[in-house]
Amino acid sequence: MGVFKAPPIDRTLADLRDCFRKWELDLFEAIPKEKVDRGYRGPGMIVNYFRANKWQHVECFSFPRKEINLRQCFLLLDRLRIAEQQGVSYAGLASSTELMRTTPEMKAHDDLMDAYGILGASPDDPTDLIKDLYHKKVFFYHPDKGGDANKFKRLQNAYEVICKERGIK
Questions:
Q1: Can you tell me the distance from the alpha carbon of 95 to that of 15, in angstroms, rounded to the nearest whole number?
Q2: Has residue 159 been placed in a domain?
Q3: Is the pTM of this model over 0.85?
Q4: Which of 140, 17, 13 is closest to 71 using CA atoms?
Q5: How many structural domains compose the chain?
Q6: In which region does residue 40 sit, left (phi positive, over 0), alpha (psi from -120 to 50) or beta (all else)?
Q7: Which domain holds residue 39?
Q8: In tens digits, what is the pLDDT along the chain, a chain of 169 residues?
């Protein structure tokens, strides 16, 4: 049996964006999450999305790399979307297993990809789309508008990382 090879995170983020667009949802975020279990530490992914007037999430900690865990979340969500078109309903989703460590060399790239995930964008997206996504989410998350302060800070930090990488002021 071969090892599952996931496409790069930016490709999966683009696929997630298309999936949510087909579901007519604009607000989603892909958040990396380290899980510590029995001495092992490794990268999982959580995908949060706003649907039916509440935040819902899918998480995967089953694989040793973030891009594989994110791809699994996408595959599940896309299949759920397709199943809903056929009249299938569902409730309650989660998955986790032991994980292993990522290398320090992958961390800088992973941090940038995480920032794109939080914003719901990919590195291939034009700057105008990045700004538009940021402004939509700022309006939603801003504490003065009734949003979550922690999510607002996380969004601001992600946008700053992306702006720094792209040279946006």
A1: 21
A2: yes
A3: no
A4: 13
A5: 1
A6: beta
A7: 9-166
A8: 445 677 888 899 999 999 999 988 888 888 888 776 655 567 888 898 888 777 888 888 888 888 889 999 999 899 888 888 888 876 654 433 333 344 555 566 778 888 888 888 888 889 999 999 899 899 888 999 888 888 899 999 999 989 988 888 7
